[in-house]
Automatic annotation (TrEMBL):
Endpoints of the signal sequence: 1-20
UniProt cross-references to PROSITE patterns, sorted A to Z: HEME_HALOPEROXIDASE (PS51405)
Organism listed in the record: Agaricus bisporus var. burnettii (strain JB137-S8 / ATCC MYA-4627 / FGSC 10392)
Cofactor: heme b
Molecular function terms from GO: metal ion binding; peroxidase activity
The protein, known as: Heme haloperoxidase family profile domain-containing protein
Length: 374
């Protein structure tokens, strides 16, 4: 389930007594002994509640003088999410790429006009599995040898690159982890598929019709080529959400017509940069048009159970329209499997973050669950 490089690196980090546990590395999956060692070196930061909705939620210039684009410096982290990469390049979140959910939620609302509950749902679902719950820090990707000092250091943490707990297969412009492990870098060949589909189905623009066709194509690609293809919760949520984010959040708020120019798309996907004069969306965007993408080619959550072309539905997985089961799956299965017996500050932090996560589905009438007690 985890990235091998990540665990190898953690093991090496523990082997050297002088190296403290990285404050932005996830504690998920550590043995009791490793956990105790790590917790001894980390300072507990109680997680603050998530920020509420914006006071002013209309469109406005966001590529402004206070948020100039700057290239990532050596050592800065960027990852599989072009939205968060862009916010880091413009200083809406820390340019280092090490951040927190409070900072991300404010930034995705301020910079893109993502709706408050969607921002909370997305961020806490990722933070619970990829973040350091004790220090309240999250890395938006992985420090790679390429960006390290000379001589290059090995990767230290996987952050949002960690495979199959939030990051997953069948991305639009990133390869499946199965193919060589680079699941986070922009891939020009895949992007050309995105452009090609925008021409075929959208008259040159990426829109909801294209999203339905391209999402289906990427799923079919993974079924046919990736023997480990996995498309159950939480990936089922993130994949459809990511198909509509470009339509909802990358079309300039003054244009507001759901038709994304593919050069604008490239600016975000590859260059991690707001176009000049970019104005955020005209209103808070809640991502509910993801259901239109699913409706174009309905597919049940499932996996390739025995090699390529063995896609089999998994009836125990939450489905896209059923956010309550997605929430329950995540809390009761994914997070619990990563943290079977938390104690001390880790337990306090887990309970608090799970509650914050719950607040995003509370308006849908979901029942709060307490896998670690109240
Ligand atoms: C709210 C916090 C957010 C978190 C924690 C997050 C996390 C992620 C992660 C882990 C991925 C990789 C999934 C994968 O394809 O395997 C991803 C992809 C993506 N994210 Fe985000 N994201 C967030 C907000 C945003 C925002 C605000 C936007 C747009 C403005 C955005 C746009 C995208 C897109 C388009 C992809 C798909 C990339 C591709 O398929 O090539 N995300 N995100």
């Amino acid at each position: 389930m985890f990235d091998l490089v990540y665990f190898t690196t953690l093991v090496l980090a523990f082997a050297a007594p002088t190296i403290a546990f990285p404050a932005h590395a996830s504690l998920a999956g550590l043995s009791r002994e490793e956990m105790d060692k790590a917790l001894g070196t980390l300072k507990f930061t109680p997680p603050p509640p998530p920020p509420g909705p914006l006071d002013f939620s209309g469109t406005k210039l966001v590529n402004d003088a206070e948020h100039p684009f700057m290239d990532a410096r050596p050592g800065d982290i960027r990852g599989p999410c072009p939205g968060l990469n862009t916010l880091a390049s413009h200083g809406y979140i820390s340019r280092s790429g090490i951040t927190s959910c409070s900072e991300i939620i404010t930034a995705v609302m301020e910079g893109f006009n993502m709706e408050n509950n969607l921002a909370i749902f997305t961020c806490y679902s990722a933070f619970l599995v990829n973040g350091n719950l004790v220090t309240d820090k999250l890395s938006i990707g992985q420090k790679t040898a390429k960006t390290g000092p000379d001589p290059p250091k090995p990767a230290t943490v996987a952050g949002l690159n960690t495979h199959n707990v939030f990051e997953g297969d069948t991305s639009m412009t990133r390869a499946d982890a199965y193919f060589g492990g680079d699941n986070h870098s922009f891939n020009e060949t895949l992007f050309q598929g995105f452009v090609d589909f925008s021409k075929r189905y959208g008259g040159g623009k990426y829109n909801l019709t294209v999203a339905g066709e391209y999402r289906y194509k990427r799923i079919q690609d993974s079924i046919a080529t990736n023997p480990t293809f996995n498309f159950i919760a939480p990936r089922i949520f993130s994949a459809y959400s990511e198909s509509v984010n470009p339509i909802n959040l990358w079309v300039d708020g003054r244009q507001d017509d759901g038709q994304l120019d593919t050069e604008v798309a490239r600016s975000f996907f590859q260059k991690m940069r707001f176009p000049d004069d970019f104005h955020r969306a005209a209103r808070p965007m809640n991502g509910e048009n993801e259901l239109d993408v699913l409706a174009a080619h309905p597919i049940e959550p499932g996996t390739n159970v025995n090699g390529v072309n063995t896609y089999t539905p998994d009836p125990t997985s939450g489905t896209l329209p059923d956010k309550c089961t997605l929430y329950e799956n995540h809390v009761n299965r994914t997070v619990r499997s990563l943290y079977p017996n938390p104690t001390g500050n880790l337990l306090v932090a887990l309970k608090a973050n799970m509650h914050y996560f719950y607040t995003s589905v509370q308006p849908k009438g979901c029942k709060e669950i307490f896998p670690y007690g109240r």
